[in-house]
Amino acid sequence: METFFVIVNIALIFALIFVLIRLQQKHVSFSKRVFVGLGLGVLLGVYLQFAFGTDSSITAQTTDWYNIAGRGYVRLLMMIVIPLIMVSIIQSIINLEKTSELGKVSLWIIGVLVGTTAIAALVGIGSSFLFDLDASQIEAGQAEESRGLYLEERLTEVQDMSTPQKILEFIPANPFLDMTGDRATSTIAVVIFSAFIGIAVLGVRRKKPEQAEMFVKIVNSFYAVVMRIVTLVLRLTPIGILGLMAVTVAKTDIAGILELGKFVLASYVALGVMFILHLLLIGIFGLNPFTYLRKVLPVLSFAFTSRSSAGTIPLNISAQKNSLGVEEGVANMSASFGATIGQNGCAGIYPAMLAVMIAPSVGIDPLSPGFLLQLVLIVAISSFGVAGVGGGATFAALIVLSSMNLPVALAGLLISVEPLIDMGRTALNVNGAMTSGTLTSRVMKTLNLERFNDKEAVEKDIAL
């Protein structure tokens, strides 16, 4: 009987995929198809949870099959991340009129990312106080206790690395190893290696223009092929979101959400406030925040469902270039840096909220100005080096809590709601990267305002 229900469930997702394909054939816009896939995924997940339960064998077998559509799509995106970054960065640099522009662009992007992370820490602190969060009010179950022990074990790994050592991890020693994504800092390492190639081509162009021109033609050919692969993969976005959302909803622990509901609510209030601050920054720089919001929503929807900042890089770059009018080099660098540096949700809000929650349990006054100033500074600094130890929000929390001499095991108390909160955190991380790219392009006067303000300027190739 179990096999029968699994086959029926597989038939259901095939039917919904067929609906999405028909919408594409009828030339329904890319954005609308993304949201249709999101909605259908939620409905499918709700059906699985209420019909068979979260932990049933039928649900487990069904979601294994659904992951072919969801996680399979994420794998395809990860497949093209490194090639896309390499050829895009190299091509962008060889098209620069002045090499000094590269340094200015990098400083602006990193400055916006780290600066907004410091602001995110303040927002997280404020939300913790608003909802009166206290870690001592949370009871730990077996899974949470195991998670706490795991975090304590990994703390040694974090403490063994100083901030300079974490930054040193960004420098590639073996670029071919980094092309495999072997390290947490592989993305940034590939960016740095690609930048060296691009700068070297500029030097060769001055002394041996013929050889440089030949290399440029090769890069342009590779770029055309890679971008075509990107387009083919991105067309699968609605189907990927359908699979991801169905699995997420089907496996969501509702009991855990209800038990830790106040923390979940406080987290999403902080994420919402920070998102609004991003839009205010867009407005302060003379751009229409509502136009920006409309154009980035499909990308944020995928980030929300996939919980992968790195996996969202191709969508991020494409939306910045084609929808927002961000200059190509800026879009490539902001999306790449934003996947590992200054993540507003994972490295900003989350560690700050945990620190304020945990402080009273060890006799520290979280309202102390000294404590708050130290917390914000540590969050900002560690957000730059967090990729040096990998692990996203968990390791960002480890770095901040250990630096503040707070017990890290208490972070394990939130394991049951971690996936739900991580969805919002990832969306905010990606929006921070897109905001940094848009603002940097605006400052550098390379933003295509006509494209930005054109409400019909969308990813036309993907929408076909």
Automatic annotation (TrEMBL):
One of its GO terms (molecular function) is L-cystine transmembrane transporter activity. Pfam families: SDF. It is found in: Membrane. Its main location: membrane. The chain crosses the membrane at residues 6-23, 35-52, 72-94, 106-131, 184-204, 225-245, 265-287, 337-359, 371-389. It is a multi-pass membrane protein. SUPFAM superfamilies: Proton glutamate symport protein. Keywords: Amino-acid transport, Membrane, Transmembrane, Transmembrane helix, Transport. It comes from the Bacteria. One of its GO terms (cellular component) is plasma membrane. PANTHER family: L-CYSTINE TRANSPORTER TCYP, PROTON/GLUTAMATE-ASPARTATE SYMPORTER. Belongs to the dicarboxylate/amino acid:cation symporter (DAACS) (TC 2.A.23) family. This is L-cystine uptake protein TcyP. It comes from Halobacillus faecis. The lineage of its organism: Bacteria, Bacillati, Bacillota, Bacilli, Bacillales.
